[in-house]
Amino acid sequence: SGTSGTTTTACGAGLYKAAHNAYYGTSYTCSKVNAGYWNNGGGTNATGSVISGKSGGTIAAGRYGAAGATSDQGSGAVAKGYYSTGGGTSSTPTAAGNGCVSGKSCGKVTAGCYADATGSTSSCPKTCPGLYVNSVAGSDDISDCYFTTKGGYYIADKTDTALTKCGNKFYCPATTLYYPNVTGDNRKSCPDASSSTDTEALADMAW
């Protein structure tokens, strides 16, 4: 709190003042709580502690807050492709201590996952579907999910969980496909309908 004369006043929302010696006739000012923390008044330290009757703590999961935040919702939600379990200090966090406070987890969503909405609270909010099990860290849309087929096989439908053999009159080269695959994206018609079956590449055909 601050003092002026004989009056003691609690710090306002988002502010704090640690315990201190107060001298008569001297005014004292409060400071902003640290980024990643908040209070609604009466702060006693930079990390969300407050006097009785007030509330404070770390910024809520999926959110981030600049210094001086007055609610657990802070400044806004973390961006697509990112997450925070709380105490966020940036909309695009990279790791605890660089995007969220110590003791919390944050960063890009993990490979094989994606976050197509803001405000994610876990490292894998959505899992890439079916055969499309791969994605890079920080993916922000299902279309980032991909799979590399093996030669002689193709993905017949985006919901498939197993590859389909290429079949007569087609060749199927190994191909990296992104979700959603249009049926037969890596299945090509043979130039000669009587040519060989289940081949991996045009050069493999027997004429």
Please tell me the overall pLDDT: 87
Strand content: 15-25%
Q: What is the gyration radius calculated from CA atoms?
A: 28 Å
The spatial strand order of the largest sheet comes to: 1-2
Number of β-strand runs: 20
The biggest beta sheet reads: 2 strands, antiparallel
Q: Which percent bin holds the helix content?
A: under 10%
The count of helical stretches stands at 0
Question: In angstroms, what separates the terminal alpha carbons?
Answer: 90 Å
Low-confidence stretches: none
Helix/sheet category? mainly beta
List the secondary-structure elements in sequence, H or E: EEEEEEEEEEEEEEEEEEEE
Label the overall shape. Answer: rod-shaped
Summarize the helices and strands and which ones pair or pack.
Blueprint: E1 2-4, E2 7-9, E3 15-16, E4 31-32, E5 37-39, E6 56-58, E7 63-64, E8 76-77, E9 82-84, E10 95-96, E11 99-100, E12 106-108, E13 113-114, E14 126-127, E15 146-148, E16 153-154, E17 164-165, E18 170-171, E19 176-178, E20 188-189
Parallel strand pairs: 10-11
Antiparallel strand pairs: 1-2, 3-4, 5-6, 7-8, 9-12, 13-14, 15-19, 16-17, 18-20
Summarize this structure as a short list of keywords or feature phrases.
mainly beta, two-stranded antiparallel ribbon, two-stranded antiparallel sheet, rod-shaped
